[in-house]
């Protein structure tokens, strides 16, 4: 696999590949290569989205823990 692209770069390249394949303006051999590259890009985008989701969930959990801690402290007063 080539260098890791940002999510936006990978998605843009994937969209270009899909558009090219939909137009049918590539040879069969090039279409197969494009499909393979598209599959790599799809996996990379999915991985980036999963990482982002995990970060958001971690932030939310941390925020919820802090709010729970504050509520517990206020309850004991």
How does the SSE layout of this entry go?
Elements: H1 7-23, H2 28-76
Task: Write a concise synopsis of the structure shown.
Helix content is 86%, strand content 0%.
Walk me through the structure.
The chain has a single domain, classed as Helix Hairpins. The protein is 86% helix and 0% strand. The chain is built from two helices and no strands. α1 runs antiparallel to α2. The termini are far apart. The mean pLDDT is 87.
Main traits of this protein?
single chain; 77 residues; mainly alpha; Helix Hairpins; rod-shaped
Helix content: over 70%
Counted by DSSP, the helix tally is 2
Query: Distance between termini?
Result: 58 Å
Beta-strand share of residues: under 5%
